[in-house]
Amino acid sequence: MDHFWMPFTANRAFKAAPRIIERAEGMWLYSDDGRKILDATGGLWCVNAGHGRQKIADAIAQQAMKLDYSSPFNLGHDIGFEFAERLVKYTPENLNRVFFTNSGSEAVESALKIALAYQNARGKKGKYRFIGREKAYHGVNFGGISVGGLTYNRKGFGPLLPVDHLPHTLDLKRNAFSKGLPEQGIERADELENLLQFHDPDSIAAVIVEPVSGAGGVILPPIGYLKKLRELCTKHDVLLIFDEVITGWGRLGASFASNRFEVEPDMITSAKGITNGTVPLGAVFVRDEICDTVINAGAEGAIEFFHGYTYSAHPIACAAGLATMDIYDEEGLLERASGEIGDYWQSSLHSLNGEPGIVDVRNYGLIGAVQFAAPDGSLVGSKIMQRCYEKGMSVRAVGDIIAFSPPLTIEKAHIDQIVETLSSIAREMFAR
Ligand SMILES: Cc1ncc(COP(=O)(O)O)c(C=O)c1O
């Protein structure tokens, strides 16, 4: 146990009482002590089509024997081009260029660097600053934690990039127990105008936000908020990046939140559900003109963008991704959350309103969060997460919030189990 330094884990506590998963199938994880556990978070918001998909496993195996690897620098392989062409069928109209990475964190770093490269290429070198948002999670690399807004992920790692932050949009006083998007709070987008004026728009390269923030506690955008950000970015000639690492691939009932909310950013970052979590792969979807500007600014025959990864467009990851897209299309999974099952999810989750200790329920598509009343430092989320596991359900805790992002293949009986488990724990822990 000592040798594996586990990520984002209380290592000592875990190793004292390990939770080991041996195999997974459909909606279920199976532990080494013979228990069957409902995967209410689709792994880490990534197993959108459910576990153990034969089609993806076959594609991975076949690709490993056909072409396991070749360099993506100055060499190409068909499957990389094929996958890029397939992916842009799901992206907003003007985002037709794909830069491949291996993770969401790398997609964020790449998007930030593309933003700077673009501003340089069009002669706007003074635009070097970014604007992120409080409570945002954009992965763990230095660019990502700079634009990110979670204190524990940032402190101790400075100095970071020149970034300022928008206020987050969580507002329990006005919006608790909203079904879908909250009605109050569009004015929080106006803070962007203030930040832009404070720093001077000519110094800002890009604004980056998650359309729905996930790891910060499932925080939804107030109605009209994202459109307002788009208007302000366009008005001040600033790029808008949507980090859709979680909100992509059907989570909100469409391929991307951008499509669901009808707001087109200049770039989208993606990962996770892009391969159903089977093989690491991330991507940045880039507006055509941004890519063309960077490429055309380079000298003929010279590398235009000094950036890329050994495993960009890894053939096995691309094969997994293509098979994943086939499953999404064949089973209508990208739209499923906006249909009947999404309605059932909403009404079931909100039936927890009134249970002891619960101060908010939030949902959209097949994402959800239940927030508990707890004094700071009480570790209530971790305790509930542990209790859920003991009762046969895997969830994510973010502070005092329990977050859900189940596979999009979820059925009503699974939703019932989620709600029953949580209400029994609420009564056990909070009833007087
Ligand atoms: C919005 C967002 N961006 C970036 C990341 C980082 O992705 P990864 O863990 O693949 O580096 C995550 C991970 O949860 C995320 O939720």
Care to describe what's here?
By secondary structure, the chain is of the alpha/beta class. It folds into two domains: 11-52 and 334-430, Aspartate Aminotransferase, domain 1; 57-330, Type I PLP-dependent aspartate aminotransferase-like (Major domain) (Aspartate Aminotransferase, domain 2, 3-Layer(aba) Sandwich), CATH 3.40.640. It contains 17 helices and 15 strands. It has helices at residues 11-16, 42-45, 54-66, 78-87, 104-121, 142-147, 151-154, 172-175, 190-199, 225-235, 257-261, 288-297, 315-330, 333-336, 340-350, 380-390, 412-430, and strands at residues 21-25, 28-31, 36-39, 95-101, 129-133, 163-166, 204-209, 239-243, 267-270, 282-287, 358-364, 367-372, 393-394, 396-398, 401-404. The strands form three sheets. It has a seven-stranded mixed sheet with strand order 4-10-9-8-7-5-6, with helices on both faces. Strands 1-2-3-13 form a four-stranded mixed sheet. The chain has a four-stranded antiparallel sheet with strand order 11-12-15-14. A hairpin with a 2-residue loop joins β11 and β12 (367-372). It is globular, with a radius of gyration of 21 Å. The mean pLDDT is 97.
